Here is the input.
Amino acid sequence: MFIISHSLFLNMYEVEVKVKAPHAEMKEDLIRSGAVFEGTEEQHDIYFNSHERDFSKTDEALRIRSVNGAGEITYKGKKIDTVSKTRPEYNSQADAQEMTNILLALGYFVSGAVKKRRDVYRWNNFIIGLDTVDTIGEFIEVESDLKISDKAEIQTEVDRIFDFLKKYGLSKEDSITTSYLEMVLEKQ
Here is the structure.
């Protein structure tokens, strides 16, 4: 008999802040500050929804992402605060086309798509994405690459990210918690 322990399913939180900001000066400053440029990714995201549970109403996301041809499926839970995009997140590598076929066969439907180009930098324990998103412009996303499961640590990480963003004249008031998908759909 196969028994699944609930302790295997700890909530791991993605601590992330997103702001709309031009990239030109940031790229040079990131390198001067010691950030490591890890490369450019062409990302194509397909978002799914369910007739049984509307993810746009429950503040969840189910996405298949292709990054330079490699596939990944992601589930994002509800955001836990109002100034960041911090939420539980689970990812797994997947064949994008086959996983799309599986989800469609299970009754999920495509709710939208987002295409973007991301320049990825790493500085200390931050992953910094300079995103150029089709139809909506340039954004910076700063994410902690720490695996955080304790909600008490989350606020400390959010504060550290905002301290980093102050260098670029950005604050909590500039934070956007709206997803790229929501912005793209609103633009359409």
Remarks:
- The mean pLDDT is 89.
